[in-house]
Design brief:
17 strands, Diaminopimelate Epimerase, Chain A, domain 1, 19% helix, Pro_racemase_fam, EC 5.1.1.8, 4-hydroxyproline epimerase activity, globular, isomerase, alpha+beta, 17-stranded mixed beta sheet, 331 residues
Length: 331
């Protein structure tokens, strides 16, 4: 039996986005958060089959568009990635909004504006166009906050590290230069991946952050290695590890949101400030601290992230149950 998926492939700031425009399963659930649970319980094979080899690769990421559950929203998004079915994904949002608009899959009620329902919450987005092309997307992300401070771990090969955990739609362990981690230039991507696996494991042993309002969102999933920018036109750069083998090619939208929440909580960034984040390959997102807020009694911020995406082609993929690797594999 073959399951057919019609996809629009492309990338946001270098990181892949596979918008599955045909073949999305019908999901149960009153909102995108409940539909995410249903998808994980019944359809995770679609995620693994489309994201992992031989149809995808370690960085593969994307999602589906659904009718939103609440009347004020224009569109619902469900994210898939090699790391799982994320509550929220920033580069994915920018890519799927771009490809959805350019191909007539999203019709906003007000041109230039969109209200998007994600499993992590509602996003208000603005976009600019030139002809049929979407040139940029800025979205106001979900409330983001510093969840854990100064967690001490010991990493073989690197030694002791003091690490914060911040939330920007996913929970990030944030490693700043210190001790033997002297900055990104001293490490290859393979080094960072190997070290990240250990950092994530040690952090999971040490803390389990739980979203203050939605306990279904919990646990450190990503590791962000930070550094000073290499050029004056950025405020920082990073390498974000996800899944088991991936370094985000984009500056990571939820990671940049988490980083801004951490910096505001530590008094190193203020409401109204702009924060240009460079990725491991030098691509950029422009973040802004839109406002201070509160999340389940905790201090939080509303960050916004701006970036752009480009489609690379249509891709008709099937998953054939006779294929030994119909669910995908990773080495
Ligand atoms: O842009 O939020 C993001 C993201 C999450 C994982 C990879 N990219």
């Amino acid at each position: 039996m073959r399951h057919l998926f019609f996809c629009i492939d492309g990338h946001t700031a270098g990181n892949p986005v596979r918008l599955v425009a045909g073949g999305a399963p019908l999901l149960h659930g009153a909102n995108m958060a409940e539909r995410r649970q249903d998808f994980m319980a019944r359809f995770d094979w679609i995620r693994t089959g489309l994201c992992f080899e031989p149809r995808g690769h370690d960085m593969m990421s994307g999602g589906f568009l659904y009718p939103p559950s609440e009347p004020d929203s224009d569109i619902g998004i469900l994210f898939i990635e090699t790391s799982g079915c994320l509550p929220m994904c920033g580069h994915g949002t920018i890519g799927m909004v771009t490809f959805g608009l350019e191909n007539g899959l999203i019709s906003p009620r007000e041109p230039g504006r969109l209200r998007i329902e994600t499993p992590a919450g509602i996003l208000d987005a603005e976009y600019t166009t030139e002809g049929n092309r979407v040139r940029s997307v800025r979205f106001r992300n979900v409330a983001s906050y510093l969840a854990e401070q100064d967690v001490e771990i010991d990493v073989p090969g690197l030694g002791p590290l003091t690490v914060d955990v911040a939330y920007g739609g996913n929970f990030y362990a944030i490693v700043e230069p210190q001790g033997n981690y002297t900055g990104l230039d001293a490490f290859s991507a393979a080094d960072l991946i190997a070290l990240s696996r250990v950092v994530r494991e040690r952090m999971r042993e040490a803390v389990e952050p739980i979203h203050p309002v939605d306990p279904r969102i919990r646990g450190v999933s990503h590791v962000m290695w930070t550094d000073r920018p290499s050029n004056a036109d950025a405020d920082g750069r990073n390498a974000v590890f996800y899944g088991d083998n991936a370094i985000d090619r984009s500056p990571c939208g939820t990671g940049t949101s988490a980083r801004m929440a951490q910096l505001v909580a530590r008094g190193r960034l203020a409401v109204g400030d702009r924060f240009v984040h460079a990725s491991y390959i030098g691509s950029r997102f422009t973040g802004r601290v839109e406002e201070a807020t509160e999340l389940g009694g905790k201090f939080a911020i509303i960050p916004s992230i701006e970036g752009s995406a480009i489609a690379t082609g249509f891709n008709t993929i099937w998953i054939d149950r006779e294929d030994a690797f119909w669910k995908g594999f990773s080495v």
